[in-house]
Amino acid sequence: MSALLQAEGLDLRFGAVRALDGVAISIWPGEVVAIVGESGSGKSSLLRVLAGMQRADAGAVLYRDAAGATHSVLDASDAALRRLMRSDWGFVHQNARDALRMEVSAGGNVGERLMAAGDRHYGHIREVAAHWLERVEMDPARMDESPKNFSGGMQQRLQIARTLVTNPRLVFMDEPTGGLDVSVQARLLDLIRGLVADLGLAVLLVTHDIAAARLLAHRIVVMRHGQVVEEGLTDRVLDDPQHPYTQLLVSSVLAA
Amino acid sequence: MSETSPKPRPLAGYNFGYLDEATKRMIRRALLKAVCIPGHQVPFGAREMPLPYGWGTGGIQVTSAVLGPSDVLKVIDQGADDTTNAVSIRRFFSRVAGVATTESTAEASIIQTRHRIPETPLREGQILVYQVPMPEPLFKLEPRVAESTKLHALADYGLMQVKLYEDIARQGEVGTSYNHPVMVNHRYLMSPSPIPAFDNPKMHMNAGLQLFGAGREKRIYAVPPYTDVRSLDFEDHPFKPVRAPHACAICGSEESYLDEVITDDAGGRMHVCSDTDYCASRPPLEDAP
Which of A108, A175, B50, B156 has the fewest Cβ atoms surrounding its Cβ within 10 A? Predict the structure, then answer.
């Protein structure tokens, strides 16, 4: 078996700031990898580079599709990237409002990716949308409502439904539980964990929430100042941190 | 009056058809490109014309560029030959080009139109010039011009389908009774200019050449003869051309597109053909007003 997404030697500079400094990372099919680190450590930049939303200054990102063909993400054309984003990938933003169309109903939001992929049967689109609303624990009776009427947690669940409706193989998540209160966070994490296990998704999760990483991730990558300082199985990294920064990070987690 | 008027003498001091030859050549180049890529919007250097934006500045520039001395020009506004816009544009070209004008669809070689396609089918060799206020079909959905250009380049039209989805979800049917977006030649999403949805099927495999000019937005696009033009819809909610369920009060037609005319202050109204030439070519009803 070979890696789904593999990146090597990624460099990215914003002026004098080195957002990424020789980063290498890989993710295998069905695996959940959490990228943790403090604010400004380059987590989100790494995610954006891997998803083709930002060009790196140097390095390579290779994606292997379902047919086994390899795509170089950094050299891909806009058209090829959009095709990947539409069919193979999904991106869950921290702020649901960045991803949702707020003036379009919940059903339309979920259906958009289906229609972009060429589905032209209204009844079928609605059926699939209702099914996905149910899977993210929302009432399908509310599918014609505007997302403006929904709470933050519901908007986030709607975003997840919208992302997963086309059965992506790889989902990028940028702090999916950020900005939500703890009980909603817990439910959302539970939901994501269930979906990921059911669908066999590969997920690349950026978070600064160590508890969320422990719950969801198989593997953890710790970043600091644009470099990967430690990498390993979740329990190993969190229970036996080797790098001083990881030790600091793990010891800073508040016990409830 | 359906016969063609004799050729008038043009005003002295104007180039044939008002625009100078270099400008006409520039417009023709844009037109050629537009015909080669059906439905694709081609930018062009629109000139100031002696009428306000929104009155057909794009249409008359296209007409001026394709007009020749032997052409016979017809101008319609919402189907009618006798409204201000139609009369003044027709008079404009008879003065600055000295071409013959007509109200008959069959006798015209060039028809400039605002918001209608004539009921009489076009034949090969005829040119239909549309006046277009907003050429970009996505402009209400995607405010960034750079982004909508990219969507066209990638043929990424899911967004337009989302709008139709929303219409059906809210109203049970597609709400656009005019300016219903079409796919041209299976490739480009195109605004048909605000013609009624009733006219959309006439664009499909039309024998005539259809040219679209948007003066303020500085865009030209075209549908060559016998091109596939399909109105957007869903498989289970097929596109339905809308027509008022009445017969014309003058000619009794039950096929043509109708205008509703208010006749008094007491709620009196009647439906008449919007295409005046078509209506006049049919025998009037005995009790016609």
Answer: B50
Residue B258 lies in a domain: yes
Catalytic pick among B175, B213, B248, B267:
B248
For residue A214, tell me if it sits in a domain.
no
Q: How many domains does chain B have?
A: 2
User: What is this model's ipTM?
Assistant: 0.85
Residue B159 half-sphere exposure toward CB, CA atoms < 13 A: 20
B 97-156 → A contacts, CB under 8 A: 150, 153-154, 156
> Is B251 an active-site residue?
yes
Q: Tell me the residue range of the domain where A106 lies.
A: 100-167
Q: Per the domain annotation, does B131 fall within a domain? A: yes
Residue B117, in any domain of the structure = yes
Hey, which residues 214-243 in chain B have their CB within 8 Å of chain A? 233-237
A107, B165: Cβ pair inside 8 Å?
yes
* Helix, strand, coil percentages in chain A from 3-state DSSP, rounded to 5: 40, 25, 35
Q: Side-chain half-sphere of B130: how many Cα atoms within 13 Å?
A: 27
Q: Which CATH number covers residue B90? A: 3.40.50.11310
pLDDT per position in chain A (256 positions), as tens? 689 999 999 999 999 999 999 999 999 998 999 999 888 889 989 999 999 999 999 999 999 988 889 999 999 998 899 888 888 999 999 899 989 999 899 999 999 999 988 899 999 999 999 999 999 989 999 999 999 999 999 999 999 999 999 889 999 999 988 878 888 888 888 888 898 888 889 999 998 888 889 889 999 999 999 999 999 999 999 999 999 999 998 888 766 5
Residues ≥6 apart with Cβ < 8 Å to B16 = B10, B67, B69, B96, B97, B98
My answer on whether B127 and B254 are in the same domain is no
